[in-house]
User: What shape does this take?
Amino acid sequence: MAEIREIKKAETSGKASIHSHITGLGIDESGKAKFKADGLVGQVEAREAAWVVVELIRQGKMAGKGILLVGPPGTGKTALAVGIAKELGEDTPFNMLNASEIYSVELKKTEVLTQAIRKSIGVRVRQKRLVYECVVKELKVKVARSRLNPYVQVPREVEIKLATKDEDRTLTAGDTIAEQIARMGIRKGDVIWIDAETGNVVKVGKAKGLEGAKSYDIESGRAVDIPSGPVKKEKELTNTFTLYDLDMSLAAQSISLTAVFSLWSEREITQDVRKQVDSYVKEMMNKGMAELIPGVLFIDDAHMLDVETFSFLTKALEAELAPILVLATNRGTTKIRGTDVEAPHGMPLDLLDRLLIITTRPYSEDEAKEIISIRAEELDIELEPQALEELKRLASENNLRYSIQLLEPSAVIARRSGRNVVKVDDVKEASRLFSDVKRSVKYVKEYETLFLK
Ligand SMILES: Nc1ncnc2c1ncn2[C@@H]1O[C@H](COP(=O)(O)OP(=O)(O)OP(=O)(O)O)[C@@H](O)[C@H]1O
Ligand SMILES: [Mg+2]
Assistant: This one.
């Protein structure tokens, strides 16, 4: 059985930045949505439904099930998905994907989907480890010439005085630990863990009120209590990885050096690697050392998926290790991509049957106004009351997203006139410069004969 060593966490993308004001679903203790909370405004029924979904996910009752968010453009479907992700917290994987991303040039659709599914399933690993948990009292790192490159000095050995409230101990360690300590910038007064078997070093934080340690006004890292009890002890550590993290880590160990240099992350992970990871995870689960956390796979603009992808997803929902599928669409009845068949939301009925549907409705003028002002605040843009009124009017005339998109251009225009506050004329100017969809369609119609066909 392959051993899973150092595991890298998958990066989360910053795609959600137009939703950066959203910090949750804004629900009170009784499960009711507050009109305005956690950056969300209105859309009360949909938010309450989303909250039920969050509770079901937390109770582990949603695995292999799906949600479909349906509503007109700009009514907060993606925003709701972000809210769900925030409520679930860091420990539950939430993987966001736009349907178009499945059609990558480098990878097969099924590979992209499989990776996405495996990024959406977490494994919480509990391990009892023998660790040194202590505060660093003194640190002496000895450097020596590198064996690989005699021109550089590398940490070779470290002598650390370690302490808890109750015990003092001095430890001498070799280059793996010395190197980590140097790289992590560990200093006197830091609380650290050293894994007794692997030599992995973890920095926990700064010790509160350690005698003789310097204290700074601005300190990076959180302040933690000085550990008590013996320096060396058994500790239970928990870590959450996604199946994808584990796949990558196992694959990285078995690939050849040439593959490393040819950007292998764009490559397929072999089925064999996945099988090994699955059986490893199952074994850990049987031993009670790991538990599965079904996370969320969110696919935005799901009407762009094709018929093969839909059937792949339907099947994936029934697999043993299945994520929770959340889809969003703004289409009514449309053709299922790759076929001539019209279907609700462009989706096959056998998939639709398995989904709970949450609908979002268009915003009232006042709701739109609130949302625009939240966005303005988030972007540090100060709006004169009339400017906000104008944006509200534009939102009801066109759609909310148009008004939100005019915020930054309006601010640029205001700054050009040496102002920090956005006035109504700046908004009007921005809206003159940047067309809304209705206007651009009308424009194209007018000059139809001049456009390429
Ligand atoms: N209820 C809400 N409260 C706060 N902000 C919202 C709300 N609804 C939408 N927004 C914000 O308005 C903008 C448009 O909403 P969003 O992108 O979620 O719409 P959508 O329904 O996903 O539209 P589309 O169908 O075009 O994808 C985003 O910046 C979003 O964060
Ligand atoms: Mg959206």
Q: What stands out?
A: Residues 141 and 158 are 4 Å apart (CA to CA). The domain at 126-236 is CATH 2.40.50.360 (OB fold (Dihydrolipoamide Acetyltransferase, E2P)).
